[in-house]
Write a structure and sequence with these properties.
Blueprint (H helix, E strand, L loop, with lengths): L6 H14 L13 E2 L6 E8 L4 H10 L5 E4 L10 H12 L3 E4 L12 H19 L1 E3 L1 E2 L8 H11 L2 E3 L3 E2 L9 H12 L7 E6 L3 H16 L7 H4 L7 E3 L17 E2 L25 E6 L6 H8 L3 H7 L13 E6 L31 E4 L6 H7 L4 H7 L13 E5 L25 E2 L9 E3 L6 H7 L4 H7 L13 E3 L2
Parallel strand pairs: 1-7, 2-3, 2-9, 3-4, 6-7, 8-9, 16-18
Antiparallel strand pairs: 5-10, 11-12, 12-13, 14-15, 17-18
Helix pairs in contact: 1-6, 2-3, 2-7, 4-5, 6-7
Length: 493
């Protein structure tokens, strides 16, 4: 229950904050079929999931007899196909909360071509069909980025009803405190007129997680009907198109991009790739893994799925014009024997077998991995948070061209960290695919660190780890918060 202030006092102190949180959207008013508000009740909506707190959010609304709406991505803060995320979606769906569309990878839709928009929508629709047996009919564009041409195309081609919001909690700005986010919702609860609203929050924001139970209880206690977006609009269209039963997991349930190993080729000029199968070239002179562009794909999406930045993709493919990418073009994703970048990840298996064990140069092996069907050096190294060079340093004599099922590879020597300048991420923190740079503390040592994930920024990282901005910057004297990149490693202690 709300204990720090009465709703009447909140109304007086933050009415201006609530009013200022409503977007003007003047450029959107011509979009007659884009909904910004409810016709009845209050739709409390969340963007950017599924995420670790989704079950708690779902249960908070169920506990007060209310409903909510989750606008879901396919591969943003996590992969929709991960077993935990599948369970979260099914939990919320079974509880009667609405699952809606927020695009596959969270791009600016107005910057995409129509085939690229198709990819963003159909990839996620396919995932919803597999996981829940439905296709959502409601879509919220990431960042609220929409115009007449894009709205018309999405509505006519994909039959999606586009919704924005009337009131923004500002939880994703990086400056809103826990108290400010709570005050935002308490201010709405104090509105005795119970004005219909469609609020925006993000299920990946800790400030929202910490305040949600109080916010929901206050809104329900004030008499608001907490409805799904579809219900609050009077079901102008059904929430879903039902396509069948949820499917069983198979090898297609993955966001992980696995590049196609290529025969290394020498560098000539620019990477001019064609649908006839011409091999790409990398700046280092060879390409050991490549990808053939499919319909609707574009540079950012290909790079994101491959664990690269667009800059790294273009470095591997000099001369490629992202504005003129063609179906059938072949792009280089890995230069030489090792990728340009490594994607830190937790090894899913550290089992051993009867095959001869490979030991590290130190003569002992702290953890090992048994090669499974379809695996190869780059994939194993990437999943272990290593480069191929580091993997080979732990396993002298291993021939990546002759890797066999059942071979046991060493992933760390004697229980120590891999021979890398990249500090290991703090347990439980997200990791990223960009090249990591380590910022060291003033004394020259760091006892705990954090690898920057996509969407994170200095204030959020400091706040989540109990630090002030001054303390974070003191620990990382070379840090430029305006140039923070996914994969950067920050010292926390």
């Amino acid at each position: 229950m709300v204990s720090r202030r009465t709703l009447l006092l909140v109304a007086a102190s933050i009415a201006s904050h609530v009013a200022s949180a409503r977007p003007s959207h003047r450029h959107r008013r011509a979009l007659d079929t884009v909904f910004e508000n409810c016709n009845t009740g209050l739709a409390f909506t969340f963007d950017d999931g599924p995420y670790i707190w989704e079950n708690a959010f779902s249960d908070n609304f169920t506990d007060v007899g209310g409903k909510t709406t989750f606008f879901i991505n396919g591969n943003n803060w996590g992969c929709i196909y991960d077993e935990e995320n599948v369970a979260r979606l099914r939990h919320a769906f079974a509880a009667g909360h609405q699952i809606a569309h927020h695009t596959w990878s969270h791009p600016y839709l107005t910057q995409l071509t129509e085939p690229e928009i198709d990819t963003e929508i159909t990839r996620l629709d396919t995932a919803f069909e597999k996981i829940l047996g439905i296709r959502p009919n409601y879509l919220r564009p990431p960042f609220g980025d929409i115009n007449d041409a894009v709205a018309t195309y999405i509505q006519t081609t994909h039959q999606k009803t586009i919704v924005l919001w009337s009131d923004d909690s500002r939880d994703s700005t990086g400056v809103a405190t826990t108290e400010e986010v709570l005050d935002f919702y308490l201010g709405i609860a104090a509105d005795s007129s119970l004005t219909s609203r469609m609020t925006l929050s993000h299920e990946v924001q800790k400030v929202t997680y910490e305040t949600l139970q109080q916010s929901v209880q206050a809104l329900a206690g004030a008499g608001y009907q907490l409805l799904t977006v579809s219900d609050c609009l009077g079901n102008v269209v059904p929430a879903y198109t039902v396509v069948g039963e949820p499917q069983e997991r198979d090898e297609t349930w993955s966001c992980q991009y696995v590049p196609t190993p290529s025969t290394p080729t020498s560098t000539s000029s620019a990477a001019s790739s064609t649908s006839s199968g011409a091999q790409p070239t990398a700046t280092s002179g060879t390409c050991s893994a490549s990808y053939t562009v499919a319909s609707g794909e574009y540079c950012w999406l290909i790079a994101n799925d491959a664990g690269l930045t667009v800059e790294e993709l273009l470095t591997l493919n000099p001369g490629v014009d992202c504005e003129d990418l063609q179906v059938g073009d072949v792009l280089c994703l890995v230069a030489g024997a090792a990728p340009i970048t490594s994607v830190p990840n937790t090894v899913s298996s550290t089992t051993t077998s009867d095959a001869p064990s490979t030991t590290s140069p130190a003569g002992s092996c702290g953890s090992a991995h048994t090669v499974e069907s379809g695996e190869y050096c780059w994939l194993i190294a990437t999943n272990a948070g290593l480069t191929v060079d580091e993997l080979l340093a732990f396993n002298p004599g291993v021939d990546c061209d002759d890797l066999q099922i059942g071979d046991v590879l060493c992933l760390s020597g004697g229980g120590s960290s891999p021979p890398s300048s990249i500090a290991p991420p703090v347990s439980g923190t997200a990791t990223s695919s960009a090249p990591a740079t380590t910022t060291s503390s003033a004394p020259g040592t760091c006892s705990s660190s954090h690898t920057v994930a996509s969407g994170e920024y200095c204030w959020l990282i400091a706040n989540d780890n109990g630090l002030s901005m001054d303390e974070l910057l003191s620990l990382n004297p070379a840090l430029d918060c305006d140039a923070l990149q996914p994969g950067d490693v920050l010292c926390l202690n």
